[in-house]
Amino acid sequence: MHTSAKARLTSVAMRITGSVSGSLTLIATDIYIEAEEAANCNDMLEPYRIVRDLTGTQGTTNVPVRDKDGKVLLTDREQSARWVKHFNGVLNQPVPNELFSFDSETEFKPIEASLLDDFQISETAKAICKLKNNKAAGLDEIPAELLKQGGEPVAEVLTELFNHIWHAEEIPEEWREGIIIP
Asked: Does 31 reside within a domain?
């Protein structure tokens, strides 16, 4: 191979290597930002998923299941039957006879509302990000994940609602209701 052809080939190879290296850096930066944003919104499942995808490791699927006496269940059929029994006992609870009443709580003196500014959209968005995922929804049946996916429009609407309630100094009756399962 001639010296000039070899020099050109080396030059092209270096440009390709630099281009690939730069692309990998951009991809790694994007992945880092994605993981950091998820962690800032209390979504810790996403960073772990990213690490699993990058490392190629999978979670263990062969965790021993024990019966109530501590005996290890070996077959899939025994394990499935144990899970059915467990969740039937945990989830099939009777419906509560009465809901908790906030009216019986001690009244507090009102806060001087004129001293406080309106809620800001950024404050509402930050509070939404701090909601925990994979938790049961309230009586409104709106899970935290749905609020988080709504982004800025949801934060704007909720901020407007909160400010209206704040200025009216009246909490909606529905917000006083809740289900308490002993």
From this structure: yes
Q: Which domain holds residue 150?
A: 102-176
pTM of the entire predicted model: 0.41
What tens digit of pLDDT does each residue of 97-126 get? 877 776 766 666 776 655 568 899 999 999
Neighbours of 35 (CB within 10 A): 19
d(CA 66, CA 55): 31
